[in-house]
Amino acid sequence: MSKYLNKEQIEKNTKRYTNKEQAFRALLGGIGTGNISIDGSAKLCDFEIHNHPDKKLKIPYTFFSLWSHIGDEIKAMVLEAAPEGISDKALGHPTGELIGLPRFDRCSISTQYPFYQFSLERDGYPLKVSLTAHTPFIPLNSQDSGIPGFQMKYQVENTAKQPAEVSICGTMYNDIGFTAYDGFDKLLQKGKPVNTEKAWAGLKGILFNSEELAQEDPTYGTMMLASVNQNVTVKPQWQLGGWWDGAEEFWQDFRMDGELSADVETTAAGSNIQATDIPRLVGSVAAKEIIPPGETKDFVFYFTWNFPNRYGWWPDGHADVSDTSHMKIWKNYYSTVWKDAADVMHYLTVQEKRLYRESRMFADALYSTTLDEDIIESLVSAITALRSNTCFRIGDGRFFAWEGCFDHAGSCAGTCTHVWNYAQALAFLFPELEISARETEFLEETDKEGSMAFRAKRLLDGRKWDMLPATDGQLGAIVRVYREWMLTGNDNFLRKVWEKVVLVLEFSLKYWDKDGDGVLDSQQHNTYDIEFYGINSLTNSMLYAALEAGARMADYMGEKKLARKWRKTAQKGNSKMDDELWNGEYYQQKIKDVDFYKYQYGAGCLSDQLFGQELAHICGLGYILPKEHVKKAVESIFRYNFRESLRDHESVQRAYAYQDEGGLILCSWHNGGRPKQPFVYSDEIWTGIEYQVAVHLIYEGLIPEAMKIVKTIRKRYDGKRRSPYDELECGHHYARSMAAWGLLVALSGYKFDIPNQKISFAPKVNEDNFTCFYSNGESWGVYHQERQDAGEIISEIVPLGGPNIRFW
């Protein structure tokens, strides 16, 4: 461990939860692979590995259990905390949940992403049981961070005075061909599921497959469960029969000696199951160890999957599912890397030491950051969003995303530009994936006039998104081209998209600025799913950020005349906009009659009014509007839009917070002037915009105000009412919430200029002893500075990984 990877700081930043936080969910899975979650009781839940979201889907008979023999006492228990909460099912809990089996009394969780540690306790029981679950996560290595699988390592400590025989067993239901759950322990499936025992050097388990299912079918795939312990027994298939015969036979077998017998009657006498029925095909893998008094043994399991076929555009939770025209099948990128779940298993186990070491190094670097633990947890939530079903990659590696996830479908397809404008996490951690999205936007989705579709539909569906171009999305895409270039120094990327960048920026000036005065004032579609009219600072600040970014890229490309033109336009426009919109406290909308068009905001204080300036700060573009007005406006946003409590807040719109919680609303009218029909989300609270404003507050030196917003978010997402790792907007794991990564960039004062091989830091807090995680397209690691006794500040950049590690 580097001297700057501080164990004390790591421990301080580690967040802790218990099974009392019943909304807690920890996602396991890679970028674009789908995932399975673990809840606060250490129970597997939310099985979302079938190329679409599936919140609340619990596959029956899928769990881990423990057997122990200490002295004269034999115990067998499910490795979960006992259930709590409302029990109101008319038929009782179905047998597939096995609620009637013994469990542990409580569970506590600590998070050091990507590692989740669960500690299970049972009063009077002499074994201490913990579980560490993780999927490898390594910045700048999207392939190893995109493995469809995870490790479950149980550690059992024997505190008794005599040896303990201990067995841990993993059980899985073969859900290949899954189409629906009947609600009573049986899945509706295509094909004929088959479980096969597999073993190779140091590993033993079950491959879950399906016969009579075409390999092109969307439900086709494979899964594998295996252990790398030495003494492993396997029951590839539970007994088939009516009712819960298989569960009964399995539990009796396991409880007897902690081992599994593969010699099972596949059908039980007296069964009425019909040959045409799809059976419940369940298999189990058990690892057994003898643990001397005072010692600890590991029980290591892996679960992998490979479902190669996905829809690119459909299903969308907004779509008419009877319209099958969008149902084009694409290969998942991960299925081109690994041919099936056994291939994934082989890679995951053979590469285990390296994958663990590099993932652990990332966790240590992130959690050594000397920032508030709520900042770290916000960063982790942002990472979770990019590893959720929100994001995916098609066979050639190209990156796509939804805006978020509904319970069983995507929410708003096509890597929506005006939502992804806010996201920062992916760009800093895996810039090549953001570059992929920029290439799609400019090379596939921009027409010959320079109009960019704000949803990437043409490639996935064969048709361009047929709507107005989005002003903020189109202009923000230009700023993000600059960001990706500055983070990577990738000249080939810049040259590849440059002609379209010029076309897009020139189109924007002509289309939204009819009179050529450098101020956008015509119909402007935006992220609120409506059009603003007249002059507003949201879209205009985006314009001035885009013009400055464009001018800097033009300088580099040798197009000095174009750079001068764009800077002149920006200078003329931002001066006029400032004169027109500044009211002494903030920038308001200028429109003759605020009620002539629906969905305007007029004199309101818009939280997003300076979003373009926030992006300019992150990308190192400097001030694009007068500094003193910018600071005053951001201060006003906090003063007028932040609520310690929503007890008296009135909203008929969607609610993302309760009355006893706080948050930053999107717009307010403290001096009156609220339109009859303001823009449709004006009274809502979105974490992505809360983070955007918090980041901007930091840049303007208003750090206590920024931290109030962050701590209010974390209080809402504390595991009691909402999962800490599922920030909601129009869907779960909403992409806009990845704006949180800007907190790290702003607080560390991180500036990046990889084309000129320069990075620098200017911490806003803890200047005397500061450590932070950093990343760019060449390397990731830690930055550290501390003040010496003589007052001099000594600093060091320590790269820990990446394709081009260097000391800067």
Structural features:
single chain; 808 residues; alpha+beta; nine-stranded antiparallel β-sheet; five-stranded antiparallel β-sheet; globular
Low-confidence blocks of residues: none
Shape: globular
Sketch the major β-sheet: 9 strands, antiparallel
Radius of gyration: 28 Å
State the distance separating the first and last CA atoms.
20 Å
Helix percentage: 25-40%
Biggest sheet strand order reads 1-7-8-9-10-19-16-15-14
Proportion of residues in extended strands: 15-25%
How many DSSP H or I helices?
A: 19
How would you describe this protein?
With 808 residues, the chain is of the alpha+beta class. Helices cover 29% and strands 23% of the residues. A nine-stranded antiparallel sheet has the order 1-7-8-9-10-19-16-15-14. Strands 6-5-11-18-17 form a five-stranded antiparallel sheet, with helices on one face. It has a three-stranded antiparallel sheet with strand order 2-3-4, with no helix packed on it. β22 (391-393) and β23 (399-401) form a beta hairpin. α12 packs across α13, α13 (537-556) packs antiparallel against α14 (560-581) and α17 (687-699) runs parallel beside α19. The protein is globular.
